[in-house]
Design brief:
The chain has 349 residues and is an alpha/beta fold. The chain contains 14 helices and five strands.
């Protein structure tokens, strides 16, 4: 059975190394490289839809959930120059067709009543309200225009958890087929985040998905974000004060929940550099890959090159103090480097 491979990590922990490694193996395809497939976990994505329909649901909440989900999926579908979008080409031209069918499968009632969310007046509605009032005054209420609303016909869904997950799996299976899962293994970068892995068993069928969560020494994550990627125009997703970074990073890791899904595997980025052969053999075993299929070995993930992305906290004297703060505050997350080396910042990427 072909599989969905999900490289994921912690905003700079090196999950793209898995995409690069597996792309060297026959039968594993990442058509758009490290393009991030966010439609499950993005704001108003599938997981938000789950939360809204299964936690504290009511008529208005379900209506809002379905509408914002549709609007967000439409943006992902249509926006060609949004770096996480352009699903019309990247995922499938039928993406919105399947999304509309999925939404309709969740809708159970379309009542005639309206609630306050539909009465949230803007200037257009105010004009309509004035016109409605004038018509009533002039005709002595013989003409009764309908009440202007932001939109009509609420969509109400009171699905059970079992119904929601089954309908969602049907929807997702259509999308996986559009991507070609029936013919090949798919590498879908960041399809899940580490904080969502506890949901995996509800969304993927047995044996369908293998997620590789890539961890990294937080000293390197901090240094490379702040001093290397930021200078290249990248956004730093963490505080740039070392102590504040430690507080933020710890809270981030504490947000994760345990998962029993067997397709979740945790690796260190550094293992792909300092223990390359053993780590690659481990990945072969997880995926059932014959080593002979790894025909482009080291062409995309070259440990001799990637080693320059490790031990960055030793690269310059100015990094040392921040590295020591992080080592003290986040000791349990440090990687046990087999030896010390000083990387070349000019070769870091």
């Amino acid at each position: 059975m072909n599989k969905i491979i999900v490289p994921t990590g912690y905003m700079g922990s090196g999950s793209s190394a898995i995409t690069d490694l597996l792309s060297e193996i026959d039968g594993y395809d990442a058509d758009y490289g490290t393009f991030e497939y966010v439609f499950l976990h993005c704001p108003n994505g599938v997981f938000d839809l789950e939360n809204k329909l299964l936690l504290g649901n009511n008529a208005l909440r379900s209506d809002e959930a379905l509408r914002t989900f549709r609007a967000t999926m439409k943006q992902l579908f249509d926006k060609k120059y949004w770096w996480v979008g352009h699903y019309k080409n990247i995922l499938s031209p039928r993406f919105m067709e399947y999304t509309e069918a999925y939404i309709q499968s969740l809708v159970q009632y379309r009542p005639a009543f309206y609630w306050y969310w539909q009465e949230n007046a803007d200037w257009r509605m105010i004009v309509k309200l004035i016109f409605k009032r004038l018509a009533e005054l002039i005709t002595l209420k013989k003409v009764q225009l309908p009440k202007p609303l932001v939109y009509e016909n609420m969509a109400v869904s009171y699905v059970s958890a079992e119904e929601f997950y089954e309908k969602t799996r049907v929807y997702l299976d259509k999308l996986w087929n559009e991507l070609g899962l029936s013919k090949r293994n798919l590498i879908l970068d960041q399809l899940l985040l580490p904080f969502d892995l506890h949901r995996a068993g509800n969304y993927f069928r047995e044996g369908q998905m293998e997620a590789f969560v890539i961890d990294r020494d937080p000293r390197d994550m901090f240094i490379i974000n702040k001093y290397i990627w930021a200078k290249k125009g990248g956004t730093v997703p963490y505080p740039t004060d070392a102590l504040e970074f430690c507080k933020c990073y710890r809270r981030l890791r504490q947000m994760e929940k345990e998962t029993s899904y067997p397709g979740v595997h945790r690796l260190h980025f550094e293992d792909l550099v300092y223990d390359y052969d053993n780590t690659v053999e481990k990945i072969y075993g997880i995926l059932g890959v014959d080593a002979a299929a790894h025909k482009k070995k080291r062409t995309m993930l070259d440990p001799a090159r990637s080693i320059e992305n490790t031990q960055m906290f030793r690269a310059k004297a100015e990094f040392a103090e921040e590295g020591e703060i992080i080592a003290r505050e986040l000791a349990e997350f440090l990687y046990p480097f087999p030896y010390e080396r000083v990387p070349d910042c000019q070769k870091s990427f």
